Amino acid sequence: MTDPLPTGATIGILGGGQLGRMLSVAAARLGFRTHIFEPGANPPAADVAHACTTAAYDDVAALTAFAQSVDVITYEFENIPTEALDILEAITPIHPNREALRISQDRLTEKNFLTGLGLQTAPYADIPDAAALTAALDTIGTPSILKTRRFGYDGKGQARLTSPEDAAQAIADMAGAPALLEGFVDFSIEVSVIATRSASGDVACYDPGENVHRAGILHTTTVPARLSASLRTDAVLLAARILNALDYVGVMGVELFVTPSGLIVNEIAPRVHNSGHWTQNGCAVDQFEQHIRAVAGWPLGDGQRHSDVVMENLIGDDMDRVPELAATRDTALHLYGKAEVKPGRKMGHVNRIIR
Amino acid sequence: MTDPLPTGATIGILGGGQLGRMLSVAAARLGFRTHIFEPGANPPAADVAHACTTAAYDDVAALTAFAQSVDVITYEFENIPTEALDILEAITPIHPNREALRISQDRLTEKNFLTGLGLQTAPYADIPDAAALTAALDTIGTPSILKTRRFGYDGKGQARLTSPEDAAQAIADMAGAPALLEGFVDFSIEVSVIATRSASGDVACYDPGENVHRAGILHTTTVPARLSASLRTDAVLLAARILNALDYVGVMGVELFVTPSGLIVNEIAPRVHNSGHWTQNGCAVDQFEQHIRAVAGWPLGDGQRHSDVVMENLIGDDMDRVPELAATRDTALHLYGKAEVKPGRKMGHVNRIIR
């Protein structure tokens, strides 16, 4: 991309969930239109988009028409089939780029990429089969966790091993999918850096947030995180190294473990990230607008934190708390308009401003 | 209205301009869908709405279908034909209520209402004809301003009189429309209060903003306004008196002149207001969400100001400054996605955060 997209241009978004919805609102704020591509019916993002295509990722005609109707393509999730990307990219540029997708779609590739940059990760081993797991348990030991290389999120596609006897069940849980074994990391806290790189190569990071998970799903993110000034600098430099290495354009979420031996990269996500939702009420320009600015070739906006924030996800029945939360001071609600409440389903989030 | 609207409900919005657009985004943030009713093609609000009806205000079938498809109706402008309101209100509740619309649709009725509440306004006189103008000039004098009673905004439908000799031309400018004469007010500054009243009668006001106009159109709003603590209190109490008198539900913009003899009400607008756009970057809950909360029967949100802000409108060719503004620190852009730039047309606004 050379010239910035003019206001009035259309941004295509693959995926119509809550991230696509909030990206769409941010795009509108800069005068852009959005077109959502989503296989599922009635996606949350369609309520705030100029257009929505409901089609599968193997529908060549729909992918072609979508790509032809937009000026740039971005996405809200990383597990987009490669064949679909081939069709789209032949017509319209995609940001973040294919290399970022290729790496983040495969946990093993991602770990190899990160260690290749000189960054620390959890100990890991490729587990193509049961024999490889037996061998890997000798070096990595337990507790450890077996994960499918692809298509995992929010704790799905994972099996914990508390002793070597769990190996057979863990392999069975993978249902034949290629996997990797990760050793547990003894960390004090998990933080994440929401980093953005513009088309001209500028990198801006929001203040790191401190994450707490429940049942494998993000529960809260608190800013500022309890990080020393030097670790805060390390976190930001490390994120910038990743984005620069990928010639990345857009927002990336970088999850980090804080350990006595420094920061360990847990995982990267080539998209706006749940742990960056606090920016909506903590900064003049939030992560969604930063992402849109980057993919549109605009300069990055001002992501300086004006307020301390605790973001809490509203999962499933947490929606019952909405009337109470709506009446609470210093509280900003963000609901996703999902019709059906399901256990474990992300229904919204709330940003509490700490004064 | 008794029960709060549940998330997932649909809010109908009359008018598809930038105010409808920003209301629609705020509604989505609370999980509501919106349906826009707008006679003009490609309204800015349609890009961020679940549905849009393009039809005239005398299209009974379209009005009926629209009202039947939504759970509550609100509006972004006050000049909605009474006949349309009759059709809509027979099917679905409208907030703010008809009385607020009736009063604000007619400058004379509005002035009588305000003075009836014991509030100060500019001196004024009903001008049904040329003879009435001659008589009124004897008491009100010049400089003064002749305004149509209805359908004026942003300086339209107004004629200034610098001497009694201007009377004939001013009457001609009204083109037979009923008018009123307003005396000039010697004021130091103009401020506005963005006040909200919930369905349960709670009133919340944002900090008053200080307005500067250019060529009859709002140019900047600065918060905090240069107001003494006692005038600040007066402004808020006065706004609350207006809202309570009308049993009002929603956001109202109240423009006030600051004079040596206290606050004089310039005009009221029964809707979200351009001088309240700063709240998007100065508060956890902005005027658009407050309005949606009120009309949905929800409790009001936290409108405390966390940052000082200068809001500047981007009018016509100001759009040429967007690339520079996008690269400026402490600056949040809000563009309306209007296809065509015209002189005097509101294209967007920018909120500068003052640190």
UniProtKB/TrEMBL annotation, chains A, B:
ATP binds at residues 107, 147, 152-158, 182-185, 190, 213, 266-267. The keyword Nucleotide-binding applies. It catalyses: 5-amino-1-(5-phospho-beta-D-ribosyl)imidazole + hydrogencarbonate + ATP = 5-carboxyamino-1-(5-phospho-D-ribosyl)imidazole + ADP + phosphate + 2 H(+). Residues 111-296 form the ATP-grasp domain. Pfam families: ATP-grasp, PurK_C, RS_preATP-grasp-like. Its EC number is 6.3.4.18. Belongs to the PurK/PurT family. Catalyzes the ATP-dependent conversion of 5-aminoimidazole ribonucleotide (AIR) and HCO(3)(-) to N5-carboxyaminoimidazole ribonucleotide (N5-CAIR). Homodimer. This is N5-carboxyaminoimidazole ribonucleotide synthase. It comes from Pseudosulfitobacter koreensis. The gene is purK.
